[in-house]
Amino acid sequence: MKVLIVEDEKELSENVNAYLTNGGFICEVASTFWEASDKISSFSYDVVLLDIMLPDGDGLNLLRILKQENSNTGVLILSAKNALDDRVTGLELGADDYLTKPFHLPELQARLKAIFRRRMMDGRNDVVFNEVRLDPDTMEAWVGDEQLPLTVKEFELLLFFITNKKRVLTKQSIAEHLWGDNVDFLDSFDFVYQHIKNLRKKMTSAQGNDYIKTIYGMGYKFTD
Amino acid sequence: MRLLTKATLLFLVVALLVFGVGGIITYQMVVEEVQLETDWYLDETFKATVKGIRAGKSIEALDNEKVIITPLLGANWPDTMAHYKDTIAEHFNLRRLEPHRNLTKIKKIDDTYYRISITDVLIEVDDMYEGVVGVLSRLFLFLTASVILGSILISRWLFKPFTKLLDRLSSFNLKNTSGLEVPETSTREFNQLNSFLRSMTDKAQRDYRSLKEFTENASHEMQTPIAVAKGKLELMLEAPELDEEQAGLIQGAYQAISRLSSIGHSLTLLSKIENQEFSVSQNIDFSKLVENSIEYYRELAELKEIQLESKVTPGVQLPIESSLAEILVSNLIKNAIQHNTPGGWISLELSADHLSVKNSGAPPSIDPGKLFERFRKGNQSGGSLGLGLSIVKKITEASDWSVTYDYENETHHLQVTFN
């Protein structure tokens, strides 16, 4: 999956680049409006990660250019400006999703993969990890042939784990993924624990493996 | 009271004083002048009488109601000085007692001494008093009438630029990009006031804009380095050779940074509310919003074994910006979940005029009066920032609503009253 990271903050794009490359993405980085528009017109990308506030231009204009050039490219808007009108304008112009800074890298990866799934896989949206299979459209999950009786939140949790497999997920990033940044209190970690306990129970009782590893002091990791 | 009415009244009070004092002075001068004139007349009559006697006119011919000539026997009368005195005598015409002025003098004319007494009626003091008061009171009435009429005309014409300015000031809005429009005037003071207000409002608008810019920039510029640091720590967590202690340290730093980020978000939100950057264009369905929030948080409450009950009156429409309304309601519910005990309960009620959230929980450890202050929190070790209720307070203030808190029968009760 080819991703263009348009972000003027070098350190930030480096972080994203390192994390996504580690997760199997092919990344390119543009730090100015002109560099980005140059790359967009020369190459084709699966998803463009777009910071709205650029030093030499409005990221939203970049989005307009992009949609004229190639409407098949997914766009994830990235900005600290969580003003509603920017979000609305961005989505109206054809952006797929919106993420406000600061964000968790696993969250970014999950959103990118979701955009990719929606755009690239025609009809076949399933997310598979060994014997576990998820259909994000119907929100159904199976272990082998047995369907798991998951709640919405448990499904989202499992999908988040699989899209970030073999990576450490902190309790914060899981909590924010499930409840948004509305959940700013520490109690939410208990909730995360509860959900993981329930998810584990449901998966193992369907004869699945326990892929969720507790990494002490850090969080959880979904790995075989 | 209007400025001009006040000034008019004050002017009339001063005028009344001036007219009073002026009246007393006028009265005294008139009385004095009348007396002088009378004395002069008596003196002239006396001289004419003496002349008549010298010319050989008979005393009977000279004698009348006003002049009494008495020849004195003997030769040893001294020539007396003229002696004026006030007296009361019968008026020769009116036949009643009136104040008179009398001059009596003994004069030697051709070896005979005469006592000549001349009497004349005085103008009555009462009459003079009445005359003065009559004239002055008419003048005063005329003055009052013209001053009142004048002040009405002045307020219409002279104060027109001023009242116009007041109108424009009252409709002046900091958020507008156009400055204060001041009315044209040829009055120097009004011109000064206009230019002063103009520069003041311009400065206020500039300050407002730069403050707004600051909050916007602060939120963007602060969140970027925070995002960078967060990302670095997340990358660090991926390192394979990490031991438990190092992981703990990273986790600690990570939490602190997350906290910093939320504080930044909350403070930006607070100043945005204070700057009134959320404009209300229409009523929103508050009932639906409350229902949605309840559903959103029901799961979290249940995970904490808290019973969440609600009684929502449908169709409550309120004039509030929807994202602010969402923050208000979710902060109240979050607060009730957080300051609760396992196995506790929350009872939420929405009616047309209030939203009330009650929940079980331990008594507050801080002064309830300070509950809405920033960074006040009952539980210092908890994950809360201590900003939730101050945001609630700010939102209610911005909407002209009110919020109250009390603790009774082991129940926390927060109530937002709509106007």
UniProtKB/TrEMBL annotation, chain A:
DNA-binding region: 124-224
Membrane-traversing stretches: none
SUPFAM superfamilies membership: CheY-like
Keyword Manganese: no
Listed GO CC annotations: cytosol; protein-DNA complex
Entry coiled-coil feature ranges: none
GO molecular function annotation: phosphorelay response regulator activity; transcription cis-regulatory region binding
Residues where 4-aspartylphosphate is found: D51
Keywords: DNA-binding, Phosphoprotein, Transcription, Transcription regulation, Two-component regulatory system
GO biological process, one term: regulation of DNA-templated transcription
All residue ranges annotated as the Response regulatory domain in the record: 2-116
Annotated OmpR/PhoB-type domain residues: 124-224
Protein name, as recorded: DNA-binding response regulator
Automatic annotation (TrEMBL), chain B:
Gene Ontology annotations for the cellular component aspect, listed alphabetically: plasma membrane
Spans traversing the lipid bilayer: 7-30, 139-159
Molecular function in Gene Ontology: phosphorelay sensor kinase activity
InterPro entries in alphabetical order: HATPase_C_sf, HATPase_dom, His_kinase_dom, HisK_dim/P_dom, HisK_dim/P_sf, TCS_sensor_his_kinase
Reaction equations catalysed: ATP + protein L-histidine = ADP + protein N-phospho-L-histidine
Protein name: histidine kinase
SUPFAM superfamilies: ATPase domain of HSP90 chaperone/DNA topoisomerase II/histidine kinase, Homodimeric domain of signal transducing histidine kinase
Keywords carried by this UniProt record: Kinase, Membrane, Phosphoprotein, Transferase, Transmembrane, Transmembrane helix
UniProt-listed Pfam families: HATPase_c, HisKA
Taxonomic superkingdom: Bacteria
Domain Histidine kinase: 217-419
Taxonomic path: Bacteria, Pseudomonadati, Bacteroidota, Saprospiria, Saprospirales
Enzyme class: transferase
Keyword Transmembrane helix part of the UniProt annotation: yes
Record-listed E.C. numbers: 2.7.13.3
Keyword match Kinase: yes
